[in-house]
Design goal:
This is DUF218 family protein. InterPro entries: Cell_Envelope_Assoc, DUF218, Rossmann-like_a/b/a_fold. There is one protein chain. With about 120 residues, the chain is an alpha/beta fold. It has one domain (about 5, about 20-40, about 45-120). Helix content is about 40%, strand content about 15%. It has four helices and five strands. The chain has helices at about 20-30, 50-60, 80-95, 110-115, and strands at about 5, 40, 70-75, 100-105, 120. Helix 1 packs across helix 2 (about 50-60). About 30% of the residues are buried.
């Protein structure tokens, strides 16, 4: 089973964020198509509440994604933290028998990318 990571994107004052919505809907398409089985939602509270994770979760719940298919990482405030904090959660999922994962819209390079060995999918 594959795991999708949705990187955080700023929540705007009026609540709408085209980037966050686009990333979330792209992951939803992959989830509904059976390409990924779990979604790691990344992002804490930025300049405006709610957390990026909560905003993604609201979109996904509204589309019928089960809570047990979502893993929430709501502490990160940077892309680097998205990856580092999500990696801990991914390691736990892998320990439970899930060995593949997919990474949505990876935006950093270097050692982390090598360690995670992601398949990058533009959103």
């Amino acid at each position: 089973m594959a795991i999708g990571i949705i990187l955080g994107a700023a929540v705007w004052r009026d609540g709408r964020s085209p980037t966050l919505r686009r990333r979330t809907l792209h992951a939803l398409t992959l989830y509904n198509g059976g390409h990924i089985s779990f979604l790691v939602l990344c992002g804490g509270v930025g300049k405006h509440p709610p957390s990026e994770t909560a905003a993604m979760q609201k979109i996904l719940r509204g589309a019928g994604v089960r809570d047990d298919a979502m893993v929430l990482e709501n502490l990160s405030t940077t892309t680097g933290e998205n990856i580092r904090f999500a990696q801990t959660l991914i390691n736990e999922i892998q320990r439970q028998g899930h060995c593949n994962f997919f990474h949505n819209n990876l935006q950093i390079c270097g050692p982390t990318m090598t360690r995670l060995n992601p398949r990058v999918e533009p959103a």
